[in-house]
UniProtKB/TrEMBL annotation:
Location of the active site: 6
Protein name: Amidophosphoribosyltransferase
HAMAP family, alphabetized: PurF
PANTHER family the record matches: AMIDOPHOSPHORIBOSYLTRANSFERASE (PTHR11907)
Pathways involved: Purine metabolism; IMP biosynthesis via de novo pathway; N(1)-(5-phospho-D-ribosyl)glycinamide from 5-phospho-alpha-D-ribose 1-diphosphate: step 1/2
SUPFAM superfamilies from the UniProt entry: N-terminal nucleophile aminohydrolases (Ntn hydrolases) (SSF56235), PRTase-like (SSF53271)
Cofactor(s) the record lists: [4Fe-4S] cluster
Residues given in the record as [4Fe-4S] cluster binding sites: 246, 392, 442, 445
Chain coiled-coil ranges: none
EC number(s) on file: 2.4.2.14
InterPro entries, per database record: GATase_2_dom, Ntn_hydrolases_N, PRTase-like, PRTase_dom, PurF, PurF_N
């Protein structure tokens, strides 16, 4: 599974705003490794400064950027993996535009589910898009509400966000104003905190821990928090639409030391492992995870079942995203390069492997084969989430249904395909018993019940309607 999507960080009223944002992004690197960006409001020169680049936070920013160029005491930062829009520098965020006296930078985590229609509407009205990102739609809507309807920035942001649908946690820097906002379903996390005299926002609280900032509360679904020279205020820009927090943040994406949606990720993962042990015990010699994804659920499984936990799949911590492969031969070294089992531990043993999810099944198949090759007697697998059968329209990069192994095959067929003796997925009930406020979560990738109907494209009828609209 591609694990990256996006991470946000924002800070108001800090003399080292750029540096704090750099650290806040560093702590959230796991949320996006494709590009990184920081913008600051330079009050002296009255303009927004920016630095963006492809790659990791440590590669994109240097001492000079942080000390000399990114001046200002308000900053917004973003790490990105593209869920919509190609992997290009012009798609790196925060996305910055000028509009009259206003300079506006926007950082987005999530995915708009009605972007195709809105984009067609805006293009029909003469808008020229610079990027392929759905985030740019929000910017153009804001500009239109300001120019056509004469709205002030706060009202224009609110009006624009009432038109877009899907998942959006946003940080917006509008000259010297910082706006944080969450969609009415609250799909993605956004935490609000305080650090001395400064206010901070982050996708995950692990960023606050690094900065020793105090977590105050999450930004609520449908809420807009504005901080400017007049102080801090909060508004409801639209009615919340129930709560549909992405349960995959707890299963896989967020860092285990973060609290998201009011709960600690580590503890949720452990509870999922314990629920798995109750649902489907197995008589094995020991429990082991495929690191790092299965680590925390395997601790829960081992504690609940009383089986020993062994960490005998060894991870190479120095593997980058790519390495130079030999030009001759068909062998794929990438799986072996990342993980290697301890032969003397697996030989002749009955092993219970705990994984957090199976998407395509291809990587797992290779890892299981390796255990077999080293002489494992039996291999059982327990997965700490239900089968993923449907795509995600809210910012997680699952492949199409035709590539989702659980959408195409039964559990028994999957067990045969990946070469294991038994397979069990955590039930939806078991998953919900492992989290607090179980009614507040999106489960659409398991049950196909989408909390916000996805618009999959612009059909002919819709296009005719758009063409009939007054630009
Ligand atoms: S469909 Fe799945 S991955 Fe997407 S938001 Fe819902 S729970 Fe998260």
């Amino acid at each position: 599974m591609k694990r990256e999507f996006c991470g946000l960080f924002g800070i108001y009223n800090n003399p080292e705003a750029a540096h704090m944002t750099y650290l806040g992004l560093y702590a959230q690197q796991h949320r996006g490794q494709e590009s990184a960006g920081i913008v600051t409001w330079d009050a002296g020169k009255q303009f927004i400064r920016e630095q963006k680049g492809m790659g990791l936070v440590a590669d994109v920013f240097n001492e000079r950027h942080l000390q000399k160029e990114l001046k200002g005491d308000i900053a917004v930062g973003h790490v990105r993996y593209s869920t919509t829009g190609a992997s290009l520098i012009r798609n790196a965020q925060p996305f910055l535009v000028s509009f009259g006296d206003l300079q506006l930078a926007i950082a987005h985590n999530g995915n708009l589910s009605n972007s195709a229609v809105l984009r067609a509407e805006l293009e029909h009205a003469g808008t020229i898009f610079q990027t392929t990102m759905d985030t740019e739609i929000i910017v153009h809507l804001i500009a239109r509400h300001m120019s056509k309807d004469g709205m002030e920035i706060e009202d224009a942001v609110a009006a624009a966000c009432r038109r877009v649908e899907g998942a959006f946690s946003l940080l917006i820097l509008a000259n010297d104003k910082l706006i944080a906002l969450k969609d009415p379903n609250g799909f993605r996390p956004l935490a609000f905190g305080r650090m001395g005299e400064s206010y901070v926002f982050a996708s995950e609280t692990c960023a606050f821990d690094l900065l020793e900032a105090e977590f105050l509360r999450p930004v609520e679904p449908g809420e807009m928090v504005i901080i400017d020279r007049e102080g801090l205020r909060s508004k409801r820009y639209c009615e919340p639409n129930g709560r549909s927090h992405c349960i995959f943040e707890l299963i896989y994406f967020a860092r285990p030391d973060s609290d998201v949606f009011g709960q600690n990720v580590y503890q949720c993962r452990k509870a999922m492992g314990a629920a798995l042990a109750r649902e489907c015990p197995v008589d094995a010699d020991f429990v082991m995870p495929f690191p790092d994804s299965g680590n925390y659920a395997s601790v829960g499984y081992a504690q609940e079942s009383g089986l020993p936990l062994e960490l005998c799949m060894i991870r190479n911590h120095y593997v980058g995203r790519t390495f130079i492969k030999p030009s001759q031969g068909e062998r794929d070294f990438s799986t072996n390069m990342k993980l290697n089992p301890v032969r003397s531990m697996v030989e002749g043993k009955s092993i219970l492997v705990v994984e957090d999810s199976i998407v395509r099944g291809t990587t797992i198949r290779t890892r299981i084969k390796k255990l077999r090759d080293l002489g494992a007697r039996e291999i059982h697998m327990r997965v700490s989430c239900p089968p993923i059968k449907y795509g995600c329209y809210y910012g997680i990069d699952f492949p199409t249904r035709s590539q989702l192994i659980a959408a195409q095959h039964s559990v028994d067929e999957i067990a045969k395909m990946i070469g294991i003796d038994s397979l069990h997925y955590l039930s939806i009930e078991g998953l919900l018993s492992s989290v607090q406020n179980p009614g507040d979560f999106c489960l659409a990738c398991f049950d196909g019940k989408y909390p916000v109907a996805p618009c999959l494209g612009v059909d002919k009828e819709c296009l005719e309607q758009i063409k009939g609209m007054k630009p």
